[in-house]
Amino acid sequence: MGVEAELLLVLGVLAFAVYELIKTRRALRKSREEKPPPKGE
Question: Following CA atoms 32, 36, 38, 41 in sequence, which dihedral angle do they give, to the nearest 10 degrees?
Answer without folding.
Answer: 60
